[in-house]
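Q: I'm writing up a methods section and want to include an example of the input and output format. Could you take the sequence below and give the corresponding predicted structure tokens, formatted cleanly so I can copy it straight into the document?
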Amino acid sequence: MPLSPNLRGALFMMVAMAGFTLNDAITKYSSQSMNMAQVMLI
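A: Here is the clean output for your methods example:
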């Protein structure tokens, strides 16, 4: 079943939001043991 462009766009947006959330969680977890310069470098 082919996806409509709106549904495909919504799915891509959900994947992007999940990726951003995961990246933010990993950054906050790793920043507990690193200083801010190291976090920004990564």
